[in-house]
Design brief:
The protein is α+β, with helices and mostly antiparallel strands. The chain has one domain: 2-Layer Sandwich (Alpha-Beta Plaits). The chain is 15% helix and 30% strand. The protein contains 2 helices and 4 strands, in the order βαββαβ. The strands form 2 sheets. A two-stranded antiparallel sheet has the order 1-4. A hairpin with a 5-residue loop joins strand 2 and strand 3. It is globular and about 30 Å long.
């Protein structure tokens, strides 16, 4: 099973990762980071296939995917 790590302080909530995830693993969380952004959280990790599209699409390199 893959693991998705999100650096919440780097996330600006652009939601590119949410939009392009083919398995809809990520979603906007309910907490804000120190910059005032709602950061993305992995909501359905059991569906993650470890493709890395979320990490590739993130303009701030806030996501890492491990297999």
């Amino acid at each position: 099973m893959a693991e998705v790590t999100i650096r919440k302080e780097s996330c600006k909530s652009c939601l590119y990762c949410v939009k392009f995830c083919p398995k809809h693993v990520l979603e906007t969380g309910s907490q804000v980071n120190s910059k005032g952004y709602l950061y993305v959280v992995p909501a359905r990790m059991e569906d993650c296939v470890g493709c890395g599209i979320c990490a590739t699409m993130c303009p701030d390199a806030a996501i890492e995917v491990y297999k």
